[in-house]
Amino acid sequence: MSETDQNSQQPLQQTDFEEITTLVYAEFQVEEALMEHNIPTYYLKQPQETKQPFLRLLKNLEKIGFIAFLRRKNGRVVLRVTPKPPTKPSNILINWLLFFATIGTTFLTGYIISSEPLNPLIGGITFTISIMAVLGIHEMGHKITANKRGIEATSPYFIPGPPPIGGILGIGTFGAVIMQKSLPPNKDALFDVGASGPVAGFFAAVIAATVGISFSHYTVISENAPTLPTPILFWLIGHWVSPSGLIPQPGPGEILAISLHPVAFAGWVGIIVTMLNLLPAAMLDGGHIARSLVGEKLRGILTALSIILLIIEGFWPMAFFVLFLSMYRHPGPLDDVSSLSKGRKIFTIVLLLIFVLCFFI
After folding, report:
1. Furthest-apart CA atoms within the chain: distance in Å
2. 3-83 placed in CATH 3.30.70.980
């Protein structure tokens, strides 16, 4: 939804304009009120408090079927009111079909990656439960926060992906998403929705990694054998929790390694997903957080740096995906004037710490 989408409405009646104007004047000091291209437009006096008055105005406008946008234009604060567009109901059947399809592909992944002495059926089941829980908790963090902040959003869509067959480095899923059907009311809400998923998913991944490493076992591999990159958090957990079983003695040309239990692998995936989502780029979770913190110019620089980092670390598909997303302008919140709260600015330090812990050694 964008302001442009709102402009293609039927002409406003004079009574509507008068009612809207009364509601606006009840919350703001108005410098000028007029109709611009059939849109009630109000230039607000500066300075004045805007965050709480705007939230109250939104509630009152919703009762009569309207919505508002607060923006800065040529150094002035402009409030525009448009009819609230109807939202198309979601087909929950699609969510369930994708959910069960992803259960199938993740089970196959867990079955394939299970190594002795683990029963592949147990490996498939435990990986499916773990990865679906990690991804689901991440998305439910977004969903619950969206509901709490008055943002219309769909239930999670799980996306099935290829298992590791025929040389394909698949994990059985491309993740999960929710779709927002309305814009956040302000920068605080935009920040909350962006941060809630990675934070919730981070703790779920930590639990999966901790439990999974305790079920894993030591093994020996060739010095040249490919291994998974180790996130800092995974390395720390490995120092607190030891794999089960005896420690084999490496022979010539061999090194000691850990054969990950499928639950540990699900935790590893969750940690990587958290790191990728916290990149301050485009429409990623970190991009939403950056949009609430900084201006468009700096956010564009952060997106470019994120793409470069992804290329350096070998995440080529993700780099192209972020590049594609960066072609679309972030719509921002309804109130793009009021600043982010101080507490959320401080919490950004916690998010940065999570990002660092999820990065590779």
Report:
1. 87
2. no
